Amino acid sequence: MTGVAITGVGLHPFGRFDGTTTTDLGVVAVRRALAEAGVGKGGFQAAFCGTAYGGVATGHRVLSRLGLTGAGVPIVDVEAGCASGSAALMLAAAAIRGGQYDTVLVFGVDKMPKGIIRSSFFEPWQEEAGLAATPSFFALRAQRLALTSGVTKDHLARVVVKNRRHGVANADAMYRKETSVEEVLASRVVCEPLHLFMLCSPNEGAAALVLRRDDLVSSPPVRLAAAVLRSHVPGSVLSESTPLSGLTDDDVPAPTALAAAAAYEESGIGPTDLDVVECQDTDAARELQSCEELGLCAPGGSADLLDSGATTLGGRQPVNASGGLLSKGEPLGASALGQVVDLVRQLRSECGERQVDGARTALSHTVGRGANAGVVILTR
Amino acid sequence: VCTNHLFPRADTCTYCAAPDPEPVELTGPGTLWAWTSVTAPPPGYLGDVPYGIGVVEFPEGIRVISRLTESDPTTLFLGQSMDLRIVPLHDDVVTYAFAPAS
Predict the structure, then answer these.
(1) What's the ipTM?
(2) Based on C-alpha coordinates, what's the Rg of chain B?
(3) Deepest in the core among A92, A95, A137, B39, taking most CB within 10 A?
(4) What pLDDT score was predicted for residue B100?
(5) Is the peptide bond before B42 cis (omega within 30 degrees of 0)?
(6) What percent of the residues of chain B are helix, what percent strand, and what percent coil, each to the nearest 5?
(7) CA A120, CA A130: separation in Å to the nearest integer?
């Protein structure tokens, strides 16, 4: 089967950029990725743009600003919540593997409102009744993780400390200052057990990649080994689909676990083969839950995994060496592709102080509203 | 047709897509399975803060996510018996919530 190479990546840093538009941010990332790949007008046959808050024809606005739309190249905006970028990547990779296109541009961009994310996902009555408070769902999951995995508040604080330490060396991150367990626990309680510093900030940014059939690329630096999206699975009351009820059956598979299983099968790479992982740390507990769902540890083993130091830079399998969403913030449409761009740089040994030595395999994971879970595996 | 229970009532079963699920009354009391408290008003919310939110489990095999009448998480415990109440939300609007069984 045709393989997929990643021939160029670009980012607009994640943060808050008053006075810029969504289009401005997208333009920066796309221009950088195309320049790296050496691709110009007419050099790609399709474009997929992940965005959740960008509005109608976000991708079209970015590409028309860059003068890249002349030949009527199809542009498709893709919305899959926090996994919008993974979904765009899945569609682009499938189109290349299926022989439809040789070269595809994939990018993601968002400029999120400040504060708790307001989502059109909820019915107005749910918002009115207080049943649409995103951090409360995070908190309920965190409490269950405490019961099933022995995760304490101290563990949650240490996830934040770890990721913020990783983020110091990431020039594209929003928060680049270390924090301490004491400082995290002194920040205000948003929803017990989650304190403010344990939650990532919705923000702004963009990320872009150029994908190309690997048989057209001499010695591709990085290959896309799998890009999988798995969506809504009914049954878990605390699923990212945020239903109003679920079953008492605790064996309902999580979309992340399904996406990971499919990605491991598609790539022939298992969880123990991974050198570096970027996973959804929308809140500190989510990183630990993600580690379990991705099979980086046994079910119930995420607190021990953190304690072992394996997921810290310098450890056996660093998780969120970029600083994670806790350092970068989360522009929904750009989030997953931001992870992939960072992992491409890890596999190209371009990450300086936060480089994972000799990294050859990497996994990106995002999960959110819908539910939608995306898992991407890269190799070099 | 499956035997799963879903809430709220719907004209199609989420689990097996069967039309017109049969309405049943859940036996109570429920038991508390998870809980927290919301300290800042989320977008679109018209009630007071802080307010409790939690998950209550029923013998029929269903868990329901709902407001709780108790907003101090330290007073609640796992497996606590919970009763359904209708409570004021704002102005003349009421909603459902679970309260520790008396």
Answers:
(1) 0.97
(2) 15
(3) A92
(4) 97
(5) no
(6) 5, 45, 55
(7) 14
Which residue in the set A115, A140, A249 is minimally distant from B55, CB to CB? A140
Distance CA A82, CA A61 (A): 21
From residue A118, alpha-carbon distances to A79, A112, A127, A132, A202 in Å are 16, 10, 9, 8, 11
pTM of the entire predicted model = 0.97
Nearest CA in chain A to B96: A129
* Whole-angstrom distance, CA of residue A179 vs CA of residue A61: 39
Residue linked to tokens 């990018």: A107
Residues of chain B with confidence (pLDDT) below 70: none
Q: Please, what's the b/e burial string for A93-124 (b: 16 or more CB within 10 A of its CB; e: otherwise)?
A: bebbbeeebbbbbbbbbbbbeeebbbbebbee
C-alpha distance from residue A62 to each of A19, A24, A147, B88, B97 (Å): 17, 8, 46, 48, 47
Q: What's the pLDDT at B102?
A: 83
Provide the phi-psi class of A75: left if phi over 0, else alpha when psi is between -120 and 50, else beta. Answer: beta
Q: Which of A116, A122, A136, A147 to mutate to test the interface with B (most CBs of B within 10 A)?
A: A136
Contacts of B8 in chain A (CB under 8 A): 244-245
Residue stretches of chain A with pLDDT short of 70: none
